[in-house]
Structure formats: C-alpha cells, structure tokens
C-alpha cells in the first residue's frame, strides 16, 4: 500500500493522541505539545523520515524522556510504511503555557474532589497520638494501592511532622506550571507535602485559617487528574487539620490507627469521635505493632486488645459498625526500608510483596475498597 506524506502526517497525529503526558494525564495532542509533524521520502521505497516537533510544558521536564520514548514508539510502529522518527524537543512559549494553565484551571475551578460524580475514594488516616506508625501505614497503604493498579495520590497533611517525602525517597520539588503544581510521583504514588519545598526544615507554626489554606492549596492548586484513591496522612490528635479535612472533603472516610496498649487506644477513640462533629464516616480501625514474631512465637510487646477496644467503642458511640480492619505486626524492616526511601510492602522492583507484610496490606486495601 502506497501512502502519501500528508496521510502519514495525519495518521501520526492521530496515533500521538494516544500518547499521554504522565503528569497531566492528557494526550500530548490535547495539550498542544505537538507543534508540527513533517514526513519526507527517504531513499528506500515506502520509507520516510518523520520529524515531530514537541513542545514540553517546562524546560528540562523530568518526564521528557518518557514522553519522547512513547512518541518514538508511535512513529516507528506505523504499519503502512517504514518510518524513521526524528524528535525535536523544545519548551512552550510563556504565552502558550499561560493559556494552557488557564484552560486547565478553568476546567477545574475548585477542589476537584467534591464535584458531583467524582470517582475518587478518599481515606484520611488518623491517630489519637503520635508514635503509633500512622505515616508508615499511610505510605505502605498508598504503595499497595498503586501496586494493585489503582491511580493513587497521597497528601501529607501533617504540616508540622511531615514524613511522606522521606518514606518515599523523594528529594525533588513539584514542577510549577505558572502557579499550578504537578505532584511528585514515587513508587507509583502521586505525592505532595510541605516537606518538598525549600525551607520546609524550619519550624512551622501555622494555626486556624492559614493551616486550612495549606490543605485547600494542596487540593486546588495541584493537578491531580482523577485518581482512584486519595490518602491523607493527618497530624495526630483532633486539631485544626482534622476539622479542615472534614470541611474540605466531606466525602472522606476516616481510618483510625492505634497500637494495642490502653494508653494509645483510649486517645485513638477521640480521633474517631471527630465524626460526631463533622460529616465524615469512620471506615475502620487499624491496629499497628500488634505483635513481634520471634522464633515462631508472637510476642505481644505492647499488650493486646487495643484495636478491638477502639472498634467497639466507636461502633457504640457512632451508631454504625466500625470494624477492626487489620492487625499489623511490629516488623523492624518496615522502619528500616521505609527510612531508606522505599515502602516496605514493595520489593526492589516496585512490585507488591507476596509474603507477610505485603499480604497484610493487600487485604487491608481490598477491604477498604470493598473488594
């Protein structure tokens, strides 16, 4: 079959409509990133050199190689002729980028997670006190969702004690598109945290409205796309941020993390009782550090029964069942691997582990999603 250069150019543009920008979740053609396509006959019959001029949203885009590899593949796999791709990469002009960002913001206009028909399941991970492993649970649960194939996002809403960047090994800042931020992706999870910004190592003393505004910015000024799951790592206790989350995300479901001993479980109940004051459902309880396995014996270092106590008390107080959804063991590897920048539920290749802790988190994720 003989094809013309014009048909090749039109066909390649159509094929590029299926190349998706990993950050914005839209095709490169929809985003105006394909400035031109030229097909020129080569020496061999039915062979053409195809030049694709690509304009990235920002100079030095960290995912430019991913995008250009997909474009190369779309050109080289053309079935009706032998095409040799030549990709020329530049960045958008300031005016073109401003128009693109204005269009994206106009399309969203507000917190995207409260729009009618939104498909995102939102889980706010809470605890009554610090030190129970809430952030570790959040990080490993997010990594589990991503490994199971869910489009997953996580917000580090613990403004004072942010820890998700370290647990995911993130050392870069979000890409800024004229005031709209692209979340950093690590281990398959889209992340945002105050800890990603310059000066974040300084003490933060925000209260009330300013604290609430930080959450609103994370929701409204970050391009999340349409994730299947959004997790929020809340600060311990029942302070301003927990109330702000309930106000900004009334469709969020609260997951309460505790450890077995009474001193932790008693205050964990209080974090769940926030649901009496705000329109937020408590989805369930996770008991962390339930036991330590030593030579085949389960040593209950912190006692036992805390998760069950929290579940029963919240069920009585709220008038609906708040189940104990998981009892997670105390595993040094969970801390050691996490502090090295990889959620412990994943192997080195990013796949979900099929043994102990991987199975525990898979079961928890499936219960939360009702699978």
UniProtKB/TrEMBL annotation:
<keyword id="KW-0067">ATP-binding</keyword>
<dbReference type="InterPro" id="IPR033756">
    <property type="entry name" value="YlxH/NBP35"/>
</dbReference>
<comment type="similarity">
    <text>Belongs to the Mrp/NBP35 ATP-binding proteins family.</text>
</comment>
<comment type="subunit">
    <text>Homodimer.</text>
</comment>
<comment type="function">
    <text>Binds and transfers iron-sulfur (Fe-S) clusters to target apoproteins. Can hydrolyze ATP.</text>
</comment>
<keyword id="KW-0408">Iron</keyword>
<keyword id="KW-0547">Nucleotide-binding</keyword>
<keyword id="KW-0411">Iron-sulfur</keyword>
<feature type="binding site">
    <location>
        <begin position="128"/>
        <end position="135"/>
    </location>
    <ligand>
        <name>ATP</name>
    </ligand>
</feature>
<dbReference type="GO" id="GO:0005524">
    <property type="term" value="F:ATP binding"/>
</dbReference>
<dbReference type="Pfam" id="PF01883">
    <property type="entry name" value="FeS_assembly_P"/>
</dbReference>
<dbReference type="GO" id="GO:0016887">
    <property type="term" value="F:ATP hydrolysis activity"/>
</dbReference>
<dbReference type="InterPro" id="IPR034904">
    <property type="entry name" value="FSCA_dom_sf"/>
</dbReference>
<protein>
    <recommendedName>
        <fullName>Iron-sulfur cluster carrier protein</fullName>
    </recommendedName>
</protein>
<dbReference type="InterPro" id="IPR019591">
    <property type="entry name" value="Mrp/NBP35_ATP-bd"/>
</dbReference>
<dbReference type="Pfam" id="PF10609">
    <property type="entry name" value="ParA"/>
</dbReference>
<feature type="domain" description="MIP18 family-like">
    <location>
        <begin position="9"/>
        <end position="80"/>
    </location>
</feature>
<keyword id="KW-0479">Metal-binding</keyword>
<dbReference type="InterPro" id="IPR044304">
    <property type="entry name" value="NUBPL-like"/>
</dbReference>
<dbReference type="GO" id="GO:0046872">
    <property type="term" value="F:metal ion binding"/>
</dbReference>
<dbReference type="GO" id="GO:0051539">
    <property type="term" value="F:4 iron, 4 sulfur cluster binding"/>
</dbReference>
<dbReference type="InterPro" id="IPR002744">
    <property type="entry name" value="MIP18-like"/>
</dbReference>
<dbReference type="InterPro" id="IPR027417">
    <property type="entry name" value="P-loop_NTPase"/>
</dbReference>
<keyword id="KW-0378">Hydrolase</keyword>
<dbReference type="GO" id="GO:0016226">
    <property type="term" value="P:iron-sulfur cluster assembly"/>
</dbReference>
<dbReference type="GO" id="GO:0140663">
    <property type="term" value="F:ATP-dependent FeS chaperone activity"/>
</dbReference>
């Amino acid at each position: 079959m003989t094809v013309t250069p014009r048909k090749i150019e039109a066909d390649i543009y159509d094929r590029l409509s299926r190349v998706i920008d990993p950050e914005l979740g839209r095709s490169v053609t929809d985003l105006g990133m394909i400035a031109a396509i030229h097909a020129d006959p080569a020496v061999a019959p039915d062979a053409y050199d195809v030049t694709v001029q690509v304009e990235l949203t920002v100079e030095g885009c960290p995912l430019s190689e991913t995008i250009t590899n997909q474009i190369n593949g779309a050109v080289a796999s053309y079935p009706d002729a032998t095409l040799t791709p030549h990709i020329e990469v530049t960045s958008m002009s300031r005016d073109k980028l401003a128009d693109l960002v204005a269009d994206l913001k106009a399309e969203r206009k507000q917190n995207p997670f409260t729009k009618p028909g939104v498909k995102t399941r939102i889980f706010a991970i809470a605890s009554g006190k610090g030190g129970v492993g809430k952030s570790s649970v959040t990080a490993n649960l997010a990594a589990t969702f991503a490994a199971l194939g869910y489009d997953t996002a996580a917000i580090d809403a613990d403004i004072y004690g942010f820890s998700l960047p370290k647990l995911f090994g993130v050392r870069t800042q979000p890409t800024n598109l004229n005031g709209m931020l692209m979340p950093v992706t690590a281990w398959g999870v889209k992340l945002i945290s105050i800890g990603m910004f310059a000066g974040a190592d300084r003490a933060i003393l925000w209260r009330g409205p300013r604290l609430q505004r930080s959450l609103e910015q994370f929701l409204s000024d970050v391009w999340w796309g349409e994730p299947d799951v959004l997790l929020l790592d809340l600060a311990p206790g029942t302070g301003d941020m927990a109330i702000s989350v309930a106000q900004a995300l009334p469709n969020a479901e609260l997951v309460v993390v505790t450890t077995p001993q009474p001193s932790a479980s008693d205050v964990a109940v209080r974090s769940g009782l926030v649901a009496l004051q705000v329109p937020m459902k408590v989805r369930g309880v996770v008991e962390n550090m339930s036991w330590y396995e030593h030579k085949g014996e389960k040593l209950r270092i912190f006692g036992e029964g805390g998760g069950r106590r929290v579940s029963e008390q919240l069920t009585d107080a709220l008038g609906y069942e708040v189940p104990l959804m998981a009892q997670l063991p105390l595993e040094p590897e969970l801390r050691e691997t996490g502090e090295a920048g990889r959620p412990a539920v994943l192997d080195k290749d990013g796949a979900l582990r099929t043994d102990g802790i991987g199975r525990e988190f898979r079961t928890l994720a499936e219960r939360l999603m009702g699978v």
